[in-house]
Design brief:
Length: about 180
């Protein structure tokens, strides 16, 4: 079915660039764009938020996807052999992440944890105001997360207590 669409000059230029780059017709570009838009509109808000976070994680090449089995083996090995210098680097990295997260508008404990949850480190259980239990993806990542999160919250000026149990971390905001 043939239809007409009015485009401003910028949109028309983008359409021409995409059609040339992909070697397909302008009509095919519009059909594909409509399909993607339709699929995005069909997502619930939680799924849209995850897509935004995954895009943020992966688009700049700052993060990678690792199989959970490999992740567990890496941390089992590191927990036994990592030096204090290594753990200091993890803490400093956490501090920098805390500052970066604040710059992104993630300025409270819950918003930071929700953002990180998309990375599949853990699942959050809210226990009460300022109290959270993190159910870890693998128990061997507990020390890493404890050190890293303590750095994040230090970088944000949040005073927290992080307690470790098998496969879980409990975080409580100090008042």
């Amino acid at each position: 079915m043939r239809t007409s669409v009015n485009l401003d000059s910028k949109s028309l230029e983008m359409l021409r660039i995409l059609a040339k780059k992909k070697g397909i017709s302008a009509s095919e570009i519009v059909r594909r764009a409509l399909k993607v838009y339709f699929e995005l509109e069909g997502m619930d808000d939680a799924t849209k938020e995850l897509v935004k976070i995954y895009t943020d994680f992966l688009s700049a090449g700052e993060h990678c996807i690792v199989d959970i089995e490999h992740w567990a083996v890496i941390w089992e090995e590191l927990n036994d052999k990592a030096s204090e210098d290594f753990w200091d680097i993890i803490k400093r990295s956490g501090i920098e992440h805390g500052i970066q997260y604040a710059d992104k508008g993630l300025k409270d404990i819950y918003s930071v944890l929700r953002y990180m949850e998309a990375g599949n480190f853990f699942r959050i259980k809210v226990d009460g105001e300022g109290k959270y239990t993190l159910i870890l993806s693998c128990p061997s990542e507990a020390k890493f997360l404890k050190v890293f999160l303590s750095g994040i919250f230090e970088g944000q000026g949040e005073e927290v207590e992080i307690r470790e149990s098998y496969g879980k971390l409990r975080i409580q905001k100090m008042i």
